[in-house]
Specification:
The structure holds two protein chains of two kinds.
Chain A lengths: L2 H16 L8 H10 L16 E2 L13 E7 L11 E3 L2 E5 L6 E5 L5 E6 L21 E3 L2 E5 L4 E6 L5 E6 L14 E3 L2 E5 L10 E6 L5 E6 L4 H4 L7 E2 L2 E2 L26 E3 L4 E5 L20 E6 L5 E6 L14 E8 L2 E9 L4 E6 L5 E6 L7 E4 L6 E3 L5 H4 L5 E4 L13 E3 L4 E7 L2 E6 L13 E6 L8 E7 L4 E8 L8 E3 L3 E5 L4 E6 L5 E6 L9 E5 L2 E8 L3 H7 L8 H4 L16 E6 L3
Parallel strand pairs in A: 1-34, 15-20
Antiparallel strand pairs in A: 2-40, 3-4, 4-5, 5-6, 7-8, 8-9, 9-10, 11-12, 12-13, 13-14, 15-16, 17-18, 18-19, 19-20, 21-22, 22-23, 23-24, 25-26, 27-30, 28-29, 29-32, 30-31, 32-33, 34-35, 35-36, 36-37, 38-39, 39-40
Chain B lengths: L2 H28 L4 H4 L13 H13 L1 H4 L12 H4 L5 H10 L1 E3 L2 E3 L6 H4 L2 H12 L16 H12 L3
Antiparallel strand pairs in B: 1-2
Classes of the chains: A mainly beta, B mainly alpha.
Chain lengths: ~600, ~160
């Protein structure tokens, strides 16, 4: 590529963005301002609150049916494409799964490539990625693009040139530690979480200095207070102090050191409270018999001070997990009226099938209801204790080793996985991509070997009895915990949603459709079949006065591994679904970005 | 790990391989099937009931191997379909690759010789994949299987016990 040209194009692109920004302003102020500009999409979830909402209105309920493909771009990579592109000024930044290529595309020239970055990574990392070699996207801040590579390297690239500014290794892939999550830039720090809960990796979130890449703080999911950054008195759970070394006390011996609780989902941030929020994943192993205790703080919502990392409050949703219900899904921060009172809430749709609404300042649990009626492992969540009321029939712990506990809903995939929901302040509703899959779960003995799978269970997955759809796209009222409407989908909805001010909501399907629906009713307004199944997140931006909608397609991820080859078996659930066909009849691998707009 | 350590480790694991194989062989010999079937590492009854080692192989495969080699041994873009490979790949070669790993350009099979979750059950995993390869069992979890024998439980205890 002619070097001179790249520089001039990108310099122009960025000049437009930064022209009015004083240099003393921190990256966070820049970002916070940029995030308010609906023409751009500057962070993975659109904004710090993770709402995936856009104020753009050019594409509306009436004209969305006319949507056309404006341009497309192939990433040249097979396998699952999660996450989505960023748009900053005239540039779009697109990422790919392993080898984690990043492209800077010029929006003034239908996506001409300005620069490309492809890290050299040891392919040994591939076999230690549990659920495909996905990557959930890059972050922007301080004139840099941050990429969290599969081999755990966090690299800062000059947004104009793609040149490496700094690079730091976050973990050790030879011990099964990998990187899949999107970073989040908060003030003068870049935050990332780790992956590897199926390899006995201990979870942590690390904040790196945005200028140098030096670690500022590390908050572990388990361990002594000095590791978890907890204060025995000031850090609370359900309103009570957590006590000394709460990240050790509920584990047998040293098991917390290989305890999992990885942090591979999304991070959100409330600038007023100065708190960052994220969830921790499953405790290792999947065999609950081998790790007695509550296994704190796996399966937990964390609220940490953005500057120091100190935990303000925690809430463990699924103590002593028996089903692999990771708690990593996004935390959406909104203000809503609950019980006649305006509350600053955090809304979270957990893998375990419950939609939680908490006070995000204090961690008080306000609402916890099933967002899929088929959920059966627990009858309810006790709002006073925060504990789920478990149903013994579906307890794999009660079943024991080498026993197949049958008909558990949801499956380990969760009623919803990492694919993020959207929130519209206009309707006050959440738009949630969900899975409707149940499972049989058989735990068995495993031994820990560093860098080797530490799973300890085998699963069969199938649709619930009497159902023939594996997913739903729902609208949820978080103030009452009720489903407003629900669109059945033949396969799990594994794509992040987008809500817009014009009352149009977008999502993708595993067969590859991009769909637009009415935010009030769920009525389908438009669909288009992209080249491969969609597990990426839809976003929107405008450029040159024209609104665009963009989505990555490229089947894969956990859904791709478990489903691309088709769910089969002699399970009753499947027997009831004669019409069920393998996903491979609908779609094939391949990463493509498709950008939509109205005809001019 | 140093080579010497690794060899010691392998020797220990091979010991448990033999231990865990023994009951399977005994079962096959006492089941009175023709000698041609005796050479097969799995047993599938007329009602589809599979022997314990084959069922266990199904479980262990789907815990340790399937993210690269695909569900039911069907392969993926990273790992070959072992249900196909075993049509031509001899058992000794299969074992060698599992123990020592293999590099094929960007594609890398890790060495699993020190992974107890694989090596304690490698014959079971082989039996399962061979049954898939021969078309003796279909996709998904075998619906019916024999109970875990006391010998299998004891062998597991011995082999996995050495991991702790």
């Amino acid at each position: 590529m002619p070097k001179q040209l790249c520089v001039s194009v990108s310099a122009l692109a960025l000049a437009a963005v930064f022209v009015s920004q004083p240099t003393a302003v921190s990256a966070n102020d820049d970002l916070a301002k940029l995030a308010k500009d609906p023409n751009q999409w500057v962070m993975p979830a659109g904004d710090y609150a993770n709402t995936r909402y856009s104020a753009l209105e050019q594409i509306n309920k009436t004209n969305v049916k006319n949507l056309q493909v404006a341009w497309t771009f192939s990433t040249g990579v097979l396998r699952g494409h999660e996450g989505g592109p960023l748009v900053i000024g005239d540039m779009m930044y697109v990422h790919a799964p392993f080898p984690n290529t990043v492209f800077a595309l010029d929006l003034k020239a239908n996506g001409r490539i300005v620069w490309k970055y492809e890290p050299k990574q040891d392919p040994n990392v591939i076999p230690v990625m549990c659920c495909d070699t996905v990557n959930r996207g890059v972050a922007y801040g301080d004139g840099k693009i941050f990429l969290h590579q599969a081999d755990t390297t966090l690299v800062a690239l000059d947004a104009k040139t793609g040149k490496v500014a700094w690079s730091v290794k976050d973990g050790d892939p030879s011990k099964g530690e990998t990187g899949t999550s999107a970073p989040l830039v908060v003030k003068d720090k870049v935050l990332i979480g780790n992956s590897g809960g199926e390899f006995g990796v201990r979870g942590k979130v690390t904040a790196y200095d945005i200028k140098t890449g030096k670690p500022a703080w590390v908050g572990w999911s388990m361990g002594p207070d000095s590791d978890t950054l907890m204060d025995p008195v000031k850090t609370t759970s359900m309103g009570k102090p957590v006590g000394k070394d709460s990240g050790i006390g509920t584990w047998q011996g040293d098991q917390w050191k290989i305890g999992g609780g990885t942090t591979w989902g999304w991070i959100s941030y409330d600038p007023e409270l100065n708190l960052v929020y994220y969830g921790t994943g499953n405790p290792s192993t999947w065999n609950p018999m081998q790790r007695p205790g509550d296994n704190k703080w796996s399966m937990t919502i964390f609220a940490r001070d953005a500057d120091s990392g100190m935990a303000k409050w925690v809430y463990q949703m699924t103590p002593h997990d028996e089903w692999d219900y990771d708690g990593v899904n996004e935390m959406i921060l909104v203000n809503q009226r609950i019980g006649g009172q305006e509350r600053k809430v955090l809304v979270h749709f957990d893998r375990n099938g419950f939609g939680y609404t908490l006070d995000r300042a204090t961690g008080e649990l306000l609402v916890a209801e099933k967002f899929d009626p088929v959920v059966n492992w627990a009858s309810k969540i006790d709002l006073k204790t925060g504990l789920p009321e478990r149903v013994k029939e579906y307890s794999t712990r009660a079943g024991g080793e080498d026993k197949n506990t049958q008909g558990i809903c949801p499956a380990a995939l969760g009623s919803k996985d990492q694919q993020p929901a959207a929130f519209s302040p206009k309707t006050g509703l959440f738009y949630v991509p969900t899975n409707q899959v149940c499972m049989d779960y058989e735990p068995f003995k495993v031994a820990y070997t560093a860098g080797q799978p530490y799973v300890g269970a085998t699963l069969s997955m199938f649709p619930p009895k009497g159902k023939d759809n594996l997913g739903n796209f729902i609208a949820w009222d978080a103030t009452t915990g009720k489903i407003k409407w629900s669109i059945p989908e033949p396969f799990s909805v594994w794509s992040g949603a987008l809500a817009t001010a014009s009352g149009v909501v977008f999502y993708g399907t595993l067969e590859g459709y991009l769909k637009a629906v009415d935010a009030d009713t769920g009525k389908e307004l438009y669909k288009f079949k992209t080249p491969s199944g969609i597990i990426g997140n839809v976003n929107t931006f405008s450029h040159g006065g024209r609104q665009y909608v963009a989505v990555l397609s490229g089947i894969g991820g956990w859904a791709g591994i478990g489903m691309a080859a088709g769910l089969t078996g002699d399970t009753e659930g499947l027997g009831a679904v004669g019409a069920y066909k393998a996903l491979s009849n609908y779609t094939q691998l391949g990463g493509t970005l498709t950008v939509f707009a109205l005809p001019q | 790990m140093h080579r010497a350590d690794r060899l010691r480790c392998l020797a220990a694991l091979t010991g448990c391989l033999i231990a865990i194989t023994a009951p399977a062989l005994t079962d096959a010999q006492t089941s009175g099937q023709p000698s041609a079937d005796d050479e097969k590492p799995y047993r599938v009854g007329s009602d589809g009931t599979v022997d314990w080692p084959t069922f266990n192989g199904y479980r262990r495969y789907h815990a340790s191997c399937h993210t690269c080699h695909g569900p039911d041994g069907l392969g993926s873009s990273f790992g070959p379909a072992l249900a196909d490979s075993l049509k031509t790949l001899p058992q000794e070669k299969f074992m060698e690759v599992v123990v020592n790993g293999k590099q094929d350009g960007e594609k890398k099979m890790p060495a699993l010789g020190t992974d107890f979750n694989v090596m304690c059950y490698i014959n079971d995993i082989y039996a399962y994949l061979k049954a898939r390869s021969d078309g003796a069992i279909g996709r998904g979890r075998p619906a019916k299987y024999e109970k875990k024998s006391e010998e299998a439980a004891k062998a597991e205890e011995t082999c996995m016990g050495s991991a702790r």
